[in-house]
Amino acid sequence: MKLYIKYMVSIRCKMVVKSELDKLGILYGTVDLGQVDVLGLITQEQKDQFAAALLKSGLELMDDKKAMLIEKIKNIIVEMIHYEEELPKIKNSDYISEKLNHDYTYLANLFSEATGTTIEQFILHHKIERVKEYLIYDELNLTEIAWKLHYSSVAHLSNQFKKITGLTPTFFKSLKSKKRLPLENM
């Protein structure tokens, strides 16, 4: 049985979920971003206790199929940009569509309707957060960042960065108080 969890976007969230499952004695297999494979049966009481425990940590157990699909889209994007070593070689729309086995137009319309933003804008904001991370930790230069995140050029990366943050990447890097948004707040 799969349980779907809203706002589960980081490794820390996975640790919280595992801890709560252990406390309740619920056997589980894999714990991925946004979902848990529960082994065996889970009583309604256990499910309610689990839901209450998740809420205390800012997470939410989901039942609505469309809400679950939207969370899956978000989790695929977060995983793709923040946790994969390399972005997929295919178009984002094809990648998401293949992962979820749904038509991209349906997914895009559902996502926009529910979140008020497009999937592409969501991806762009996450890519900019990833750029910030690379800049803050001085891991790569702008050319390497542009290549790694599939920008056509450094100029394209810089333009998008400035459009989203209001700053150039170079100026951002020089700031003393470097502010990144936690993934949970995006």
Describe the 3D structure:
- With 186 residues, the protein is of the alpha+beta class.
- The chain has two domains: 62 residues, Alpha-Beta Plaits, CATH 3.30.70; 122 residues, Homeodomain-like (Arc Repressor Mutant, subunit A), CATH 1.10.10.60.
- Helices cover 59% and strands 9% of the residues.
- The chain has a four-stranded antiparallel sheet, with helices on both faces.
- β2 and β3 form a beta hairpin.
- α1 packs antiparallel against α2 and α6 crosses α8.
- The model has no long low-confidence stretch (mean pLDDT 89).
Quick structural gist:
By secondary structure, the chain is an alpha+beta fold.
How many strands, which pairing sense, and closed or not: the largest β-sheet?
Answer: 4 strands, antiparallel
**Alpha-carbon Rg, integer:** 18 Å
Poorly predicted regions are none
What is the straight-line distance between the termini? 29 Å
Number of spatially distinct domains: 2
Round the mean pLDDT to the nearest integer and report it.
89
Number of helices: 9
CATH architectural type of the largest domain = Orthogonal Bundle
Say what the CATH topology of the largest domain is: Arc Repressor Mutant, subunit A
Q: Spell the H/E element sequence.
A: EHEEHEHHHHHHH
CATH homolog superfamily of the largest domain:
Homeodomain-like
Question: How many individual β-strands?
Answer: 4
Protein structure class: alpha+beta
Name the beta content range: 5-15%
Anisotropy-based shape: globular
How do the strands line up in the largest sheet?
A: 2-3-1-4
The CATH class of the largest domain is identified as Mainly Alpha
Indicate the percent of residues in helices.
55-70%
